[in-house]
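Review box. Two proteins, two foldings.
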Amino acid sequence: MGIIDFFRKSKASTYDQNLDLAWMHTDMHSHLIPGIDDGSKTMEQSIDLIRRLESYGLKKIITTPHIMWEFYKNTPEIILNGLKKLRKELSINDIEIEINAAAEYYIDEFFFEKLKNGHQLLPVSENYVLVETGFINKPAILFDTFFEMELNHYKPILAHPERYYYLIGDKKTMHDLLDREIYFQLNLLSLTGFYSKEVKVFAEELVDEKRVKLVGTDCHNDRYLDALETLPKSKYYEKLQHLDLLNNTL
């Protein structure tokens, strides 16, 4: 074997890994309850997606449908009823992975009013609540919302901060969030370049600086998982596994 062939073989052996997420234990961000948001559309699709997630070595899923006033007017009752039906189908199909449900709340004035009025939220675990914002502009009520969540004894988890362009261009806001101990949840797909090069670079920066507390697939459909299976090609696949993550505590 020539030296060039040796290096080609070494590179191929590095890249040909199968996706193994056993180290992650729990996927705490996905959209797998059928027909209630922009995720899975049918029960059959949900079953197929969950079967794939289980094959990666995951032990638990906490699926998180959107609650977004203008588009997805879900409630805890709607989500938990969907979870009940999903669990029944998983049992029929002999899929044993543990599955729970929370919500991904969109930060806007409607969510802020829910907090002010003491509405009970659907947490990821204990008092951890997953929230998101728009991708371009920072909400004017961002910090007021986090303050109100804390007054109501909720611990905010900011979903996929690497995808927010207002954070990429505003490191002061990012550091203000970190100073407030807002937990950052990274989408694994961001490290594959699935969203954009800018998102990938920022995601890598957050990993390098150990800013990430939780990770998730944010799975919506098979296209997401097809892309996710390229993650072992990234050197950050190994780096992720050395972070002090909270996923296995959920």
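Next protein.
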Amino acid sequence: MKIKYNAPTVLTYAFLSAIVLLLSQLFFHSLTPAWFTVPGKGGFDPSQIRNWINLFTHVIGHASWNHLLSNFAFILLIGPMLETAYGSLPLLLMIAVTALVTGALNILLFRTALLGASGVVFMMILLASFTNFTEGEIPLTFILVLALYLGREIFNSFSANNVSEFAHIAGGFCGSLFGFFRPVKRE
């Protein structure tokens, strides 16, 4: 029996995020704030190429091992199934679009910086409810997941914390749109 690199997009994403956190904590303490964090409202300088790159890379950076593990527990659980259903490149593009949407909305609406994969987690959670989608039907699993996960985020958004519930909601919205408009790859 041999080990198979069964979900290249998901596994590469997980390993890259872990390497960035390790390097940031051990050697380059400014790595995550500089290259893997989206600035908040008023902090985005369009003349700085780094700010444009961060619109996509903020989903790779994490504040701590607990932050990374809580995100990638879901991504490693759900991601391989989605990669099988949709394909590696389409899933990578969905992750990139979700990063861009959550990053851009953060720059436009919030003063605090944004980092982490939780928007991608919520994109995958909502997208997963569409894997058995039949045209002309709305899966009950989608409705329940939407009510439970996004309902909780809306409720939590009224509490004082350092979690970007809005990124979760935006990621879930992206996953919903991908589910409705991107059919599952059938073989």
